[in-house]
Amino acid sequence: MVNSSLKLNKTSFGSAENAGNVITEKEALELLNDWVKNEKLIVHMKQVAHLMKEFAASESLSLEEQHKWYLAGLLHDADWDQWPEQHCKKIILELESRKIDPEIIRAIASHGPRYFGVEPETKMDKMLYAFDELSGLIHAYSLMRPTGYEGMQVKGVKKRLKDKTFAAQVSREDINDAAERANVSIEDLVQFVIIHQKDAKI
Ligand SMILES: [Fe+2]
């Protein structure tokens, strides 16, 4: 799906003087509407955004911080649909040119260390990486369950994680790596997604 050409070859993103600069949710959604034609990808980004915001809230971070986490989730794959060969590079350049808070850009840049060559460092970086693939797998699981998220259990998700033919494009390796880096158990991560993902505005 992706190759080494996606390597970003840098470790610093944006500018420290832009700390605290954000765009509104409306502006971010406008960017997505401009850039992304694939509805499923938009749903994916909205779900990850919601998980990010909820996680920041669960850590008692301020509303400003929660919005930053939300934006990182909402925009992390914005360039994947139209510019897969420039995935990550394009959205980083866009956010740098809009003088967006470097922490948001960094989280996006490190959401796939194997591909982009940027190590997740902050909690925001690590949680974006951790939620990304797992969110998709649990969404797929909800769609095949007659009751969706209702009654979904951690053990059911773990069974799907073990079954490599289920949502086969979802990298189990990345999920395990991300959970380890974030120092969160797979069980806790899965439970968090089960509880919160159904409330994402999609
Ligand atoms: Fe993603």
UniProtKB/TrEMBL annotation:
CDD domains: HDc
A UniProt-annotated Pfam family: HD
Identification of the protein by name: HDIG domain protein
Record SMART domains: HDc
Source species of the chain: Algoriphagus machipongonensis
Domain HD/PDEase: 37-146
